[in-house]
Design a protein that fits this description.
This protein is of the alpha+beta class. It contains 11 helices and 5 strands. A 5-stranded mixed beta sheet has the order 1-2-3-5-4, with helices on one face. Helix 3 packs antiparallel against helix 4. The longest helix is centred in the middle third of the chain and has 71 residues.
Length: about 375
């Protein structure tokens, strides 16, 4: 904003100076009105300093100033008015600019007649030179073109933000649903175990420890809270949840789309062969989103998917040979992936590779218990 104000000030001073110089070098038909003419020339130019904040007011001010120095006998084109027309149209005040310009087409010949031009035909001919009709139309067209370009840019930016926000909300919803399913199951197990322990202790006539009673009550309360808070987030889709077993289908779909995709699965010694449900679903989503990004944005020919079962962790790595650079900006899908991985206590790395292309690598903890 500060820079725009400085630019407007420089333009206003420059136009005012150019108009005054043009007035000094041109003929004057009414020497007695020189002070009025020079004041109008300077005022018309200086009014442009607020053309962004008050475009309609500046349009009127430059029009009045132009008529004033025409009446004073200064044969100077209405340059400041052309700037005002451009600013008004750019700000969206097209009707005001058109009405003012039509009035100027009528008022300028009258001002010339008042200044001393006695022939009506000569007044209209001179008004055409003063108004510079071609430049007047060009100023309005330029303002409208820039206004449309800015409107499209704002609309595109708003659409991108809405898309990113919607996708992030969708990912958070998926995470909430999956965490709900996982946590509800685990807390239910804790609650049932506590209930059984309390029942057996009372059946044997033993005193029930306070800690065990507290665990039972906490389990009941946590179950109620989860159901009350997150039940609305349950997925209404008919499709069953996807996991690691469905990753080969993703790779086959990528090949069908023309991408040379390869899948490698490695199970290391002492690794846990099965993974929790939440990790299973997150791994699938990471591969799915990564391959989708490769197909949409990377312009890649090949991609490799590697799933590594390590002791205590599941590592997913997706590489491609696309055109990513160190300046590449990750897509909004990476936000959802990062949130999923972080929710499970894992780590996600995503960025361009030294050898070219892009890499997404996620490490998800696997509890051996």
């Amino acid at each position: 904003m500060r820079r725009a104000q400085i630019v407007d000030g420089v333009i206003a001073v420059g136009v005012a100076a150019a108009l005054v110089v043009a007035g000094l070098s041109g003929p004057h038909r009414s020497p007695g009105l020189d002070v009025l003419g020079y004041a109008a020339l300077a005022a018309g130019g200086l009014a442009l300093v607020v053309r962004r904040r008050a475009p309609v007011a500046v349009l009127a001010a430059t029009a009045v100033a132009a008529l004033a120095y025409q009446v004073a006998g200064f044969e100077v084109p209405v340059v400041a008015y052309l700037f005002a027309v451009y600013a008004a149209v750019r700000a969206g005040h097209r009707i005001a600019a058109v009405v003012a310009s039509v009035l100027m087409l009528v008022a300028v010949p009258l001002a010339l007649l008042v200044s001393g031009v006695h022939d009506t035909g000569a007044a209209f001919t001179q008004s055409r030179d003063v108004l510079q009709l071609a430049w007047l139309i060009a100023a309005g067209a330029a303002g409208e073109a820039l206004r449309q370009a800015e409107r499209r840019a704002d609309e595109a930016e708003r659409t991108r933000e809405e898309t990113a926000r919607r996708r992030a909300d969708e990912e958070r919803l998926h995470i909430a649903r999956e965490l709900h399913d996982s946590l509800t199951h685990q807390i239910s197990v804790i609650k049932v175990q506590a209930e059984v322990a309390v029942h057996l202790a009372r059946k044997r006539g033993e005193e029930v420890p306070e800690a065990l009673l507290a665990i039972r009550e906490a389990g009941r309360e946590a179950t109620r809270e989860l159901r009350a808070t997150l039940e609305a987030l349950r997925d209404d889709d008919k499709d069953p949840p996807r996991g690691l077993d469905d990753v080969p289908d993703l790779v086959r779909q990528a090949r069908t789309a023309g991408l040379d995709a390869q899948l490698t699965v490695e199970v290391r010694q002492d690794a846990v062969p099965t993974v929790p449900v939440a990790v299973d679903r997150t791994a699938y989503r990471i591969v799915q989103e990564s391959l989708t990004n490769v197909a949409r944005h990377a312009a890649a020919a090949t991609a490799s998917v590697r799933i590594d079962h390590r002791p205590g962790a599941l590592v997913i790595r997706v590489d491609d040979d696309g055109k990513a650079t160190v300046d590449s900006t990750p897509g909004v899908g990476l936000t959802g992936m990062r949130e999923r991985v972080t929710a499970l206590g894992g780590r996600l790395q995503a960025g361009p590779r030294r050898e070219g292309g892009f890499r997404v690598q996620a490490e998800l903890p696997v509890d051996p218990a």
